[in-house]
Amino acid sequence: IGGGAIGLLTVLVLRAWGCRQITLAETNPLRAGTARQYTGCACLNPIENPVEASSYKVVIDAVGSAITRKLAIHSVKPGGVVMHIGLQDWDSEIDMRKITLGEIALLGTYTYTMEDFHLTLSMLEQGAFGTLGWVEQRELTDGQRAFDDLESQRVSSAKILLVP
User: Fold this and answer.
1) CA torsion angle 108 110 113 118 (round to 10)
2) Within 10 A of 104 (CB to CB), how many other CB atoms are there?
């Protein structure tokens, strides 16, 4: 869930590790297009096309809002796994009954170890993340407009780097 930098990189890492059936939930059609172009994954807008309950073995929430946590738990199959990466907001009500009765594993992950960092650099060097054309560069002085563009979903890039 989420086609920003974390979500897009998650898809690319999963692809590099051999996963082929990946669906990305993204509400911004520009970002969904970028995800399809650079990862080849299927994309869906969960607002326009509601996700069927209990339809995925593994769900990764790369947004971390109350609504995406709810979507993640709604979408995962019994016996499946929900991994929570994003930290957009703190408030949340989750369906503990579904988690318990469905024997769903709920994992949280944050940051990385030095081993992860070295593996990532190696994958980057090997081209596992593609051309990185999904990263946009702008001048530092354009920072406020970059944040405004991200907030209003006028950006197709998963990441904007501000360069001094």
Assistant:
1) 110
2) 21
61 Ramachandran zone, left/alpha/beta (phi>0; psi -120 to 50): beta
Q: Three-state DSSP class for 111? A: coil
Contact partners, residue 73, CB within 8 Å, separation at least 6 = 59, 82, 94, 95, 98, 99, 104, 106
Q: What is the pTM of this model?
A: 0.87
pLDDT tens-place string over residues 41-72: 999 999 999 999 999 999 999 999 999 999 99
Instruction: Check if the beta carbon of residue 81 is closer than 8 Å to that of residue 104.
Output: yes
Token pair for residue 160? 């904007």
Helix or strand or coil: residue 104? coil
Q: In this predicted model, what pLDDT tens digit does every residue of 85-118 receive, in sequence order?
A: 988 888 788 899 999 999 999 999 988 889 988 9
Helix runs in the chain, H state only: 5-16, 29-39, 66-75, 96-101, 114-125, 143-151
Quickly tell me which residue has 């024997």 as its tokens. 103
- 3-state secondary structure at position 80: strand
